[in-house]
Amino acid sequence: FQGYVKSFNTSAGIDLKRDLIGNLGDQVILASALDDAAPADAPLDQRLNQLYAISLKNDTAFTGAVESIKRGVYGQAADKIFEKRAYLGHDIYTYAPPQPPEAEGAPPRPAGRGFSYAVADHWVFLGIGSASLVENALQGLESKQASFWDKDDVKRNLLADLPDNSRWLSYVDLGKIMPVYFDAIIQGMQTSRKMAAMRAQRSQPDDGSGQTPPAEPDKPLVDDSAKPDAATLAKYWGYTRSYGYQDAHGTYSTGRVIY
Fold first, then answer.
1. Complete DSSP assignment for the chain
2. On the CB side of 111, how many CA atoms lie within 13 Å of its CA?
3. How deeply is 248 buried, as exposed, middle or buried, from its count of CB atoms within 10 A (0-12, 13-18, 19+)?
4. Average pLDDT over the chain, rounded to whole?
């Protein structure tokens, strides 16, 4: 592996450890948001857009390392594979995975998830799925409006009692995420039921004798219409806040759920 890295460094004209990894800072922000464009029956990972924000020590060196890696892997095709566009004075690069060919008569495959990234103000923003979260982050850099963390209720409920030695903080709006979890549970139950029905059907003798008729794999197991709507769930689910801290005796974490 070390030999491969050395060879790649030579061909790309960079030092991966120094120019790429060495320029990553010590702050990491992770965020997820619902993708309004995704259908309600899409898998959970397809319904959430994710953002990773990592602080940088040197924007220019990091950007140069990323560009060298792209050209080292894709050559001159890198500019076509990563679509570049300007946004609020910064560049956003987007990668959309190629759609695999489909067999004749086969149902269409779900499109693979792409990603977008941008480097700005000593941060690299990486968005999985839609580029909207990267755009939102760049808007936040340019905006003079108060951020989510500057709100009085957020300071009072989430930040006021954080110890000085906190290492990380997590916040989840349960009113928004619980409907998605409901859908994910239903999808899992439906999938398990269909697989069990198909296994039972395959295990039957050819003449069907001595076997109980298998359940219909396509018959709904759960009445989707009985699921409470998002507004109803939001009345009973508030948020969860957790944080981690460290002292001379170890590393700890604590959390609470507000209904």
1. -HHHHHHHHHHHTS-IIIIIGGGEEEEEEEEEEE-TTS-TTS-HHHHEEEEEEEEES-HHHHHHHHHHHHHHHHGGGHHHHEEEEEETTEEEEEE-PPPPP--TTPPPPPPPP-EEEEEETTEEEEEESSTHHHHHHHHHHH--S--GGGSHHHIIIIITT--TTEEEEEEEEHHHHHHHHHHHHHHHHHHHHHHHHHHHHHTS-TT-TT-PPPPPTTS-SS-GGGSPPHHHHHHH--EEEEEEEEETTEEEEEEEEE-
2. 12
3. exposed
4. 84
Banded pLDDT at 45 (limits 50, 70, 90): confident
Q: What is the pTM of this model?
A: 0.76
Nearest to 176 by CA among 233, 132, 133: 233
Amino acid identity of 172?
V
**Measured CA distances, 206 to 88, 198, 210, 218 (Å):** 66, 15, 11, 22
d(CA 122, CA 136): 16
